[in-house]
Every structure is written in structure tokens, then in C-alpha cells.
Design brief:
The chain is about 45% helix and about 25% strand. It is an alpha+beta fold and about 190 residues long. Among the domains are: about 90 residues, Roll (PH-domain like); about 40 residues. It has a four-stranded antiparallel β-sheet with strand order 1-2-3-4, covered by helices on one side. Helix 2 packs antiparallel against helix 3. The longest helix is centred in the N-terminal third of the chain and has 20 residues. It is elongated, with a radius of gyration of 22 Å. The chain starts with a helix and ends with a helix.
């Protein structure tokens, strides 16, 4: 019985070692392994009806807040609405992304392999997004748009240095946002 436990522990440890990315010496010269240019964020054109619905909802919320005398909260709601409107109407700029032998270059800032934890893919507005978790507090996660044809090449390179995660852990805020967007569809 003890022999079975020892073998199962050894097989579990072997599986964990196989799942871990291979440590590669990054002390050599800087070499670009992959390069792409993509928009800074996912973007979807919105029509007038969409914004009319948003503005009516914000007007009703502001009216309720006036009756309970929460004027500061009205300012917060209006400023968030303004930022959302601007981000929804102005197309994003294109930025360069690189995967190098030293790490990932995201929007001109270099992040060494030692500061990266894992990566995974998500979809938004029919676009594929590469998400890379970092050890740093800011940014805790980097979001990079990629073409679907580049996904296999990027995965192959990143998996040498960083662990790929199939289902990332969602925070409470992410879960609430997902539920709210399912319940309150504006389209």
C-alpha cells in the first residue's frame, strides 16, 4: 500500500514538472522571437440607438440620485459615462508588441520573463485577446489583441517561458461584471 502511495506521489510530481515551463537561459543577446502590430483595445462600432439607450438609463439613474441628494455620485456616474462614450466612439491606436528572448515588450514597455506568471486567451467582439498575468501590481494583467492565425506561433513561443492556463481565476468584480452584462444587454 505504501509503495502505491509513493508511486502516485512520484507520478504527480513528474506531471507537475512536465507542466512547468522549461527554464531557458535568457542571458544571451536580445533577439526578437515574434513581432506584431495590433489595436490597443477591442473596438466595436456602436450606433445612435445604443447610445440613446445608455443616455436614457443614465438620465433615470441621475434623476433618482437627485431625489436622494447624492450630487457627488451623479458627477461620478456622468464622468464614467463620458469616458465610456469616448472609448466607444474613438477607434484605438495601433501599437507594437514583441516577444523576445528577454521577455515581452507591451506597448513600448519591457517585462522580463521573471515577472510573468501565466498566459491564456479570451474572446471579445470576435477578436482574440492574449492575456498575460504579471507579478507586478500594475499591470496585473496585460491584454494584447492578436490575429487568430498567429495564435499557435505565439502559444508555442510563450509556453517555453511561461505556463499556459486554460481557465483563469476570475475575481469577484469580473464575475459580477459578467453577470451584469448578461442580464442587462443593451444590444
Amino acid at each position: 500500500m505504501n509503495l502505491l502511495k509513493r508511486r502516485s506521489k512520484q507520478s504527480i510530481e513528474a506531471a507537475k514538472q512536465e507542466a512547468q515551463p522549461v527554464k531557458i537561459d535568457t542571458s544571451g543577446p536580445l533577439k526578437v522571437l515574434y513581432f506584431w502590430n495590433a489595436p490597443a483595445r477591442p473596438f466595436k462600432e456602436r450606433d445612435k440607438q445604443y447610445f440613446s439607450t445608455i443616455f436614457i438609463m443614465i438620465f433615470v439613474i441621475s434623476l433618482i440620485l437627485v431625489f436622494i441628494k447624492e450630487f457627488l455620485l451623479i458627477g461620478v456616474v456622468l464622468s464614467i459615462t463620458f469616458v465610456y462614450y469616448v472609448l466607444s466612439t474613438i477607434p484605438p491606436e495601433k501599437i507594437d508588441h514583441k516577444i523576445t528572448t528577454k521577455g515581452v515588450v507591451y506597448a513600448g514597455t519591457s517585462y522580463p520573463w521573471e515577472n510573468l506568471i501565466s498566459f491564456f486567451y479570451t474572446e471579445k467582439f470576435d477578436k482574440t485577446i492574449l492575456n498575460i498575468n504579471t507579478k507586478e501590481r500594475f499591470p496585473g494583467r496585460m491584454f494584447m489583441l492578436i490575429d487568430l492565425k498567429d495564435k499557435t506561433a505565439i502559444t508555442k513561443i510563450l509556453s517555453k517561458y511561461v505556463e499556459e492556463v486554460e481557465t483563469p481565476k476570475e475575481s469577484v468584480a469580473e464575475k459580477l461584471a459578467a453577470k451584469a452584462s448578461q442580464k442587462l444587454s443593451l444590444e
